[in-house]
Amino acid sequence: MSQDRLKALDDLGLETSAFKVLCYLSFKDRAMKPSEIAEKVWEKASTVRARLTELKDAGLITATPEGYISNLTPYDMLMKLYREIKEELKG
Q1: Cα of 41 vs its chain's centroid, Å
Q2: Three-state secondary structure along the chain?
Q3: Is the pLDDT of residue 91 over 80?
Q4: Which of 75, 78, 32 has the alpha carbon at shortest distance from 55?
Q5: Domains recognised in the chain with CATH numbers
Q6: Whole-prediction pTM value?
């Protein structure tokens, strides 16, 4: 993973709708439409569309004609959680 993507991922809070959307997409093996994502992560479609734009601008996802796909793997998401937990245990 590039340093820019790693920083963008690490800047996301775990409790944010952006993290929920990115996590959901990272574990999917196909492109998804904003309305599908909204239904699955229990967020408003307008919120999901706004977060998708932010994630795309950060290089974390890609927009395709079929929908959005994550540029990250499930491993990347698990490592984010690991880093967060590790930091929490230090403090």
Answers
A1: 11
A2: CCHHHHHHHHHCCCCCHHHHHHHHHHCCCCCECHHHHHHHHCCCHHHHHHHHHHHHHCCCEEEECCEEEECCCHHHHHHHHHHHHHHHHHC
A3: no
A4: 32
A5: 3-90 (1.10.10.10)
A6: 0.88
